Amino acid sequence: MSAEATNPATPGPVSSPAARWRARIDLRRLGRAALLGPAGRDRLPDAISHVVDAHRAHHPSADLDPLRRAYVLAESSHRGQMRKSGEPYITHPLAVTLILAELGAETTTLTASLLHDTVEDTDVTLDQVGEQFGAEVRYLVDGVTKLEKVDYGAAAEPETFRKMLVAAGSDVRVMSIKLADRLHNMRTLGVMRPEKQARIAKVTRDVLIPLAERLGVQALKTELEDLVFAILHPEEYERTRELIVDNASRADDPLADIADEVRGVLRDADIPAEVVIRPRHFVSVHRVARKRGELRGADFGRLLVLVNEDADCYGVLGELHTCMTPVVSEFKDFIAVPKFNLYQSLHTAVARQDGQVAEVLIRTHQMHKVAEAGVIALGNPYAPAPDDPADGERADPTRPGWLSRLLDWQEAAPDTDTFWSTLREDLAQDREITVFRPDGGTLGLPEGATCVDAAYAQYGEDAHACIGARVNGRLATLSTVLQDGDTVQLLMGQDPASEPSREWLEHAHTPAARIAIQRWLAAHPAHTDTEEDAEPSSAPRPTPEGAVARPLVDVIVDQPDATVRLAGCCTPVPPDEVTGFAVRGGVVTVHRVECAAVARMKSGGRAEVGVRWGDTTECRVTLLAESFVRPHLLADLTEAMALEGAEIVSATIEPPTQQRVRHTYTVQLPDAALLPALMRAMRNVPGVYDVNRTQPHPA
User: Residue 292: which residues within 8 A CB-CB, separation 6 or more?
Assistant: First the structure.
């Protein structure tokens, strides 16, 4: 059977939120009620009274008849089946349904939850479920059943969770039921063999807890974390439990004192608010202890301030920062920029004179509901609005962006192994950042993501044409690691045949980017970075050293019979301010006055020679253009130079590195005054991000 049972393994006597929640479920009472069988035809069975009370608290006007009928079918179907702990099997779907009801799940989800094991473990068929409860319930039960049919062994894990992901993407309620199912099984894991407990706990830790985080179901996530912590790290768990017990036994409670002070501040400001102390769960205390060392009283919990309106959140923040001592570095605004999993709240911290610091969470009651229950609190995401046409389309406007991305790349993953490795990598990212687009949109990316990842997140496979990026207004390479709050403008080429670079794989951290690049490279095995259009038929070839197409500019030197040579280190042209130095053979080299060579020669005691420009304005100059790699760049660049009247004397193109390439051109202009316009024209070529004068390369 899908749900195995043992004696509950509670995390000790501490009254944590998870422990109080578990205490509400009296399995023995549920067992006794289940053994009595269903109630009368119209009366609600006693066994589901807990579920009904929890459901009515969130949905007062809900139709309870589907729950009654679902319980009757589930109880009769599972009758005679027992869990390993001795309770009737029906206690498992009842407990799973109660978990979801307390989180605010709507009636359809609860109905499917009561029936979620019937098709797998009894003679009930999907068609019967559909006939009695409708297509939505049938769909959900089918989705959960498909997940349960796959073994959780190591070899089966990749395909198991690929199916889970597809099921969740089709309807997030399938994943909600699965998470609640796993939570109840983790609560009752104690009589299994230790090695089996460890295996289930590791799968829960590696995949299900991160999925709960991404679905925003913090209430499930935190309890699962504590249960896994107790199984996989029993010694550290026990030390953490002792810390919590010791703190609870102290006479003074700094959090309570700070909470009273906060209540007074808000009362004086006439802001209606509820201020409560939120004890940290075991894993949270353990993390804080590792981060801060010795814990103080205020470290064992946080203050939660609940208000009615969004504007009140900022009103509370202002009062706390005005009347108390804020820790500014702790401030985060997840209301203006919600987290990827729908979470919204203001985070701050206030300090007492004795150094105790209390973290404060500020949110509305609705925000709190979503923070605890995530997608479960959103009800039926597929129910059409009253003014929407009932066209039968399954569209989920509430589906988290990360889930949409995962669905996209799982379809593109060439095989299960690739899917599994990329899924594990993605879920291992415990923090997501938000970057802004110039058009006002946002992109949610995992921490450590680069401009390559941003390109594929925004454009999909069209990101093959990306030629660069600006981060916070500055040009940046595609390998640049993005930070939370950065603004990213992606520079896209216009050529539909644009190609990604193999080097991009080194900088791609998201599955979407890696799989798209790998697919393209696999389809073009002969592709190498050196095969870009570096030298099309129209590209210039280096000319022999010293080749001159036209006379150079005139220079008048205050030294009779001297031969004049323009210095290659700074390539002076009119109207640059220049100076000269005599070298061997009666030659005077002319430099720009700001040239580094001028300072060196002066410090070496070499005398300057006066020089000035003559009447001829023709000039030769060497320019260095730096650009991102893209096809046909060289052809576009040389065409732009020709349109400005520049004659290319020689050109050198270096091999690309990190998707950037350097071009060095020695050009001759009919008039030195044309140089600024030429450099502007070169910079305006898509992909070129800088043009400067430089010394010429050897031909």
Answer: 299
User: Given this model, what pLDDT does residue 360 score?
Assistant: 96
Per-domain residue ranges for the chain?
A: 17-232, 252-375, 416-527, 562-612, 619-693
Q: Which two tokens stand for residue 39?
A: 């109630």
At 684, phi and psi to the nearest 5? -80, -10
d(CA 183, CA 421) in angstroms, rounded, equals: 25
Q: Tell me the catalytic residues.
A: 120-121
Q: How far, in Å, CA of 25 to CA of 23, rounded? A: 5
Over pLDDT 70: what percentage of the chain? 76
Instruction: Give Rg (Cα) of the chain.
Output: 35
- Where helices occur in 583-685 by DSSP H, the ranges are 596-603, 633-643, 675-683
pLDDT at 266: 95
Residue with tokens 């797998």: 120
Q: Which CATH class is domain 17-232?
A: mainly alpha
Q: Give the pLDDT of residue 551.
A: 37
Burial code of 615-642, b = ≥16 C-beta within 10 A, e = fewer? Answer: eebbbbbbbbbbbbbbbbbbebbbebbe
CA distance 198 to 190: 11
Strand-pairing partners, residue 111, are none
Residue 670: its pLDDT value, please? Answer: 84
The residue count for the chain = 699
Cis upstream peptide for 575 (omega within 30°): yes
Low-confidence ranges of the chain (pLDDT < 70): 1-42, 148-170, 340, 379-431, 494-498, 526-554, 568, 584-585, 615-617, 695-699
DSSP 657: B
Distance between CA atoms of 422 and 504, rounded to whole angstroms? 16
Q: Give long-range contacts, CB 8 A cutoff, 24+ apart: 295-300.
A: 295/243, 295/247, 296/254, 296/355, 296/356, 297/247, 297/250, 297/252, 297/253, 297/254, 297/255, 297/356, 298/254, 298/255, 298/258, 298/352, 298/356, 298/357, 298/358, 300/243, 300/244, 300/247, 300/255
Distance between CA atoms of residues 697 and 699, nearest Å: 6
Backbone angles phi, psi at 583, to 5 degrees: -125, -170
**How many CB atoms lie under 10 A from the CB of residue 463?**
25
Distance from C-alpha of 304 to C-alpha of 497, rounded to nearest angstrom: 54
| Other beta carbons less than 10 A from residue 222's beta carbon | 22
Q: Report d(CA 184, CA 682) in Å as an integer.
A: 66
Dihedral pair phi/psi, residue 70, rounded to 5°: -65, -40
pLDDT for 306 equals: 97
Cβ 571 vs Cβ 622: under 8 Å: yes
Residue pair 308/366 in contact (Cβ under 8 Å)? The answer is no
CATH of domain 619-693: 3.30.70.260
Residue 379: name the closest of 66, 100, 95 by CA: 100
| Residue 605 falls in which region: left (phi positive, over 0), alpha (psi -120 to 50) or beta | left
| Fold classification of 252-375 (topology level) | Beta Polymerase; domain 2 (3.30.460)
CATH topology of domain 416-527: Ubiquitin-like (UB roll) (3.10.20)
- For residues 401 and 443, give the distance between their C-alpha atoms in angstroms, rounded to a whole number: 9
CA distance 21 to 313: 28
Structure-token pair, residue 48? 């589901």
